[in-house]
Amino acid sequence: MPKSTLAGHPLHPMLVVAPAALLPFSFILDAMHNATDNDDYANAAYYGLTGALIGGAAAALAGAMDYLTIERDTDVKRTANLHAMLNGGVMVATAANVLMRRNQPRHVGGSLALSALGALGVIVSGWFGGRLVYEQGMRVKGVSPVEHERDVKMLPGDEKIEHAMAGAEKYVPSAGPVLH
Length: 180
Known about the structure:
Domain DUF2231: 8-141
Strand content: 5-15%
Number of helices: 6
CATH topology: Four Helix Bundle (Hemerythrin (Met), subunit A)
Mean pLDDT: 90
Structural class: mainly alpha
CATH class: Mainly Alpha
Organism: Massilia solisilvae
Protein name: DUF2231 domain-containing protein
Keywords: Membrane, Transmembrane, Transmembrane helix
Number of strands: 3
Number of domains: 1
Order of helices and strands: EEHHHHHEH
Strand order of the largest sheet: 2-1-3
Radius of gyration: 19 Å
Helix content: 55-70%
Largest sheet: 3 strands, mixed
Pfam families: DUF2231
Shape: globular
């Protein structure tokens, strides 16, 4: 199976931004609702959870494409398994939270606990995702254990978009502050 790519870059890290931001934010909104009883916070949390669920499904699809290219019985596969299991659990908890609240976004049953679990789960899972990239080289050019696998092009003219984006870099100065 090919790796997921958009304009020459891995797609999965681009898509994880929505659930990685929305799940902790939704928990904060739920906690604010719990503290103030202001339904606006509960409504915003509900829509945040819904957005996280949709974004998480897209990220999961792209991640699964990359996952299926990783060799068995490797440390990378082990880390990817844990990352995927955590994300699967987060998605189940989030789906349950959304379903429990679909008729009324206010807290019902253990919805605040599910929000906390989702927020914590996505943070822990993100740590393992970072380990995959920064320590194990997953999808890092010249280092990646799946570099030999072909890429699926996500958009018509994908290579032209990649070329245009890379070409735009030459117009940006390379100077800037450095911390020593």
